[in-house]
Amino acid sequence: MTQISRRALLAGSAALAASPVLASAPIVGTQAPGFYRYKVGDYELTQLFDGAATFPMPDHFVTNVSKERAIAEVARMYLAPPGEITVPFNPVLINTGKKLILIDTGYGPNVSPQVGHLPANLAAAGISPEQIDTVIISHIHPDHTNGLHTKAGALAFPNAEILMPEKDWAFWMSKENAARANDPVSKAYFANAQKTLSDLIDHVGTYAWDKEVAPGITSIATPGHTPGHTSFAVASGKDRIFVQSDVTNIPAFFLRHPDWHVMYDHDPDLAQRTRHRFYDMAATEKALVVGYHFPFPSRGHVERNGMGYRLVPMSWSTTL
Amino acid sequence: MTQISRRALLAGSAALAASPVLASAPIVGTQAPGFYRYKVGDYELTQLFDGAATFPMPDHFVTNVSKERAIAEVARMYLAPPGEITVPFNPVLINTGKKLILIDTGYGPNVSPQVGHLPANLAAAGISPEQIDTVIISHIHPDHTNGLHTKAGALAFPNAEILMPEKDWAFWMSKENAARANDPVSKAYFANAQKTLSDLIDHVGTYAWDKEVAPGITSIATPGHTPGHTSFAVASGKDRIFVQSDVTNIPAFFLRHPDWHVMYDHDPDLAQRTRHRFYDMAATEKALVVGYHFPFPSRGHVERNGMGYRLVPMSWSTTL
């Protein structure tokens, strides 16, 4: 071992203190919390970012457009690295002042580090899972329902009533329907639903369309993506916002091209008709829309654009 | 005073505990922190939201377009309540791993509660003002420079060298130029510069164009908005981003309509030529651009759109 004198050590430490290579602050490497608050009348809503998945473009991500066209569209819209695609996931929390209501739960902890960030972002927003009174599921797909459970399989929101769209609950939990499924996407959805939701059979409630599912929250029929796929109007005072759920997957694709079919649609023709009906309404009424797969913080207006539509995102505001 | 028995109090408190009007969680009323991190090569950049100002549409906000047209455009782009306009402010922090460099400082504490949030968002990002090594000013306008001082008038970043664009420093600090100013906007800018920056005359350094102003940060001439208005290329490894500063004010107006002149431009014709030159480059190179007045978190690509351009915002990412 080389002997180093105390004098040299002191000199070295002085040199180090004066060195320009010393970092002023460490590289942090982590993102800001993914939550965003806004008001709808007296209600306080919080967008909760569950994350975004980037994955190689599937062969039939858009079932009625070529993979090459889909890959070119990703590049045109700067959505992901070449040959990949990115899909974000954005549940929404509604504080009515009396009740805390969560619409959809994110992907949960068992899928990938890219997703399942809702619990962390809920904590960053100052809310504990135990405080949630009601969880409303828009439709039974894993990115919306799998966050109902913790990694250990317990209820993620232990004090919450859970409300499922009645048509989806009947459809996806049916063993007969599951046995008849003959495409890999539907098979995977049936398998996930029956694996992850069967413990909830005596626990959940169901809701119908055109009902006030919770105070100020009305269910709207937007079927096609799934048989019971539901959007919501959230109204307080004179304000209203539409929580569209998955009327589109990513808007850069399916809002701009409403006649494109995403591989996850159960009845793509019905989903297409639903898109036109919903966005014609939203554009005409200049309605504010929240989309589960819109870029965080997921709020925007819909404007007509040629044969399709375009999202005009709402800007970040410091004030609510 | 009405007497209330202990029994009634207990009954009341039991009734209260069981009451559905008890909030599960209080309405919070405040926004999530306004910072956002991303990587450029080995560098870690942090967008810091200073806030957004909403104000009645000035008579000549767009000097070469009618106020009615400007008001209609706000409505069309859902930018603000009727008759008003919203402008956001977004400084950027660059951590090279060795140095912490802040480009522009926000409006500081003396303007309005709508703005001056940079210090709070810097703190939320885990950085103290004392850690900043260098402050680079893109141009001498109050929303970029007034954050150099605290409310008490001390240096907001006490250990930082301050670098000003040499042409702006010479122009705006000249008493002769100030005396010659004959329009209210220029007069206000001269007055603010000489009031708020005179204490820094022996403290600041200046920089020229086309120079590496700090490690990996190159100054780019984009004059017009002010005589010394500067953009920056920030490069590390194979990555690069352009910090455009104010080549446009809000992109919904002046990126979509590059021939519109904002009332804050010193030489509007030169600013217009600069816009076309800069955005032709950005669109052709598919460059990533940060804009001081882009919607937070302020990153996007520029695409050509008819006679103008359009911003394609980058989506929020959980990973850096």
Describe it.
Two copies of one chain form a homodimer. The first copy, chain A, is of the alpha+beta class and 320 residues long. The first copy, chain A, has a single domain (31-313), classed as Metallo-beta-lactamase, Chain A (4-Layer Sandwich), CATH 3.60.15. Chain A has nine helices and 16 strands. Chain A has a seven-stranded mixed β-sheet. A seven-stranded mixed β-sheet of chain A has the order 10-11-12-13-14-15-16. A two-stranded antiparallel ribbon of chain A has the order 3-4. In chain A, strand 1 (35-40) and strand 2 form a beta hairpin. The termini of chain A are far apart. Residues 1-22 of chain A have low confidence and may be disordered. Chains A and B meet through strand 1 of A and strand 1 of B.
Write the SSE topology.
Two copies of one chain form a homodimer.
Chain A: H1 6-18, E1 35-40, E2 43-48, E3 51-56, H2 67-76, E4 84-89, E5 92-95, E6 100-103, H3 118-124, E7 134-136, H4 142-145, E8 161-165, H5 166-172, H6 175-180, H7 184-197, E9 205-207, E10 212-214, E11 217-221, E12 230-236, E13 239-245, H8 251-254, H9 268-285, E14 288-291, E15 299-305, E16 308-313
Parallel strand pairs in A: 6-7, 7-8, 8-9, 13-14
Antiparallel strand pairs in A: 1-2, 2-5, 3-4, 5-6, 10-11, 11-12, 12-13, 14-15, 15-16
Output the keywords:
homodimer; 320 residues; alpha+beta; Metallo-beta-lactamase, Chain A; seven-stranded mixed beta sheet; 26% strand; globular; disordered N terminus
